[in-house]
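Today's session is about reading a structure prediction critically. Students often jump straight to the picture, but the first step is always the sequence itself: look for stretches that repeat, for charged clusters, for runs of hydrophobic residues. Only then move on to the predicted structure, which in these notes is written as discrete structure tokens rather than atom positions. Here is the chain we will use throughout the hour.
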Amino acid sequence: MKFFRIFTVIFIGYLSYMAYEKGIELRGMGRNADGDGIGISFLGIQTAERVPEANIPQHAQGFFVFSIILGISGLLLLFLPLIKKIVPSPFKNWIRKQLETE
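Below is the predicted structure for this chain, in token form.
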């Protein structure tokens, strides 16, 4: 189980880094695109076929937000055992009871 969690954290970290790099690439491109627009692909998957020049900065911001969300989720997964130890046991029991009643 520990190996799987560490592997998942590394994979999420890699995806977060790649999304950040894609945002940097798009930010650097700015509004300089040829023709009708550009196609945006992430890790070999085309996310947008034709993005107009005016919308390139919004897509860059989207990749930045995506990388931040992935990074935070990876950190939460990494520190999950520590979080379980810090949260007091009565609070856990109260949450468990609340979920059972719903």
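Discussion point for the tutorial: The two ends are 30 Å apart (CA to CA).
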